[in-house]
Amino acid sequence: MRCDDPGIVSGSEMFVDTPSDLARGMLYYITSCGRFFTEYGYRIERGNYNNYMVFYVLGGRLSVTSGGRTMVADKGKVGFLNCHLPHEYHTIGHTEFLWVHLDGGITDKFYTCLTHLYGGFVFSHPGADGVQKMLARLVNSYQSGQHMRETERSRQMYALLTHLLDGGAPGKAEEQQIFSPALRFIEENLDKPITLHEMAGTVNMSHYHFSHLFKKYYGCSPYEYLILERINRAKYLLKTTSLPIKEIAQQVGYLNASTFSSAFSAKVGLSPTAFRAFPL
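and the corresponding structure tokens:
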């Protein structure tokens, strides 16, 4: 479908879609997508467009404003814009970009997490090539007239969002090289007080850099990872031994049973005693 809005030049295409009630209530869905070639004069300003926008700049520059902040996306940059809020964007000269308007599922949580992770709604992404390919595949599927089921379209949307989320992590080999000593240290010392400085020291990093890199890869802070490992060890001991709760608490690094029970209940939704009695 051609689009003749001001500033959009020949070769541009856009496609629209309307989700079913099922998709709107349960799935990720697309409301429109396309590939635009633009020039000076292309400008969009909205109060609320009732969805989110993911875009990839193939060439040129796109200026984006939201929440009183303006960011410029140049070639190779990725954008994730909350179009439920007032926003404006315009191209600076000749610009080409792929875009998709989407919503549903937990898109709002992806948006909050990603913009916090990358420091804004426009960012450089280590997996930007993958973002480009996934967006191009989506646009091409509409262009070719593929009649895709909404569940499959939802899977594609979820794949895009998770790629954005974990694309900033180191590769598997690098992860093993970086984090293995820290993970081994945690596993071997769950019964002892462990500090962030000690964890970072095992990989010769500052605690700030270690924490930042760790969260990028695992999606949680080193401290939360430590808590989860303690809870997992406690679950194992509760189900495979008859040790008193107080002793289990000490074996997983808690000074007293009360603090342990509070931490366990917060993560599991059951007290240690109830978990022990509850059939798995």
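(Above: one complete record from the training split.) The chain has two domains: 13-166, 172-277.
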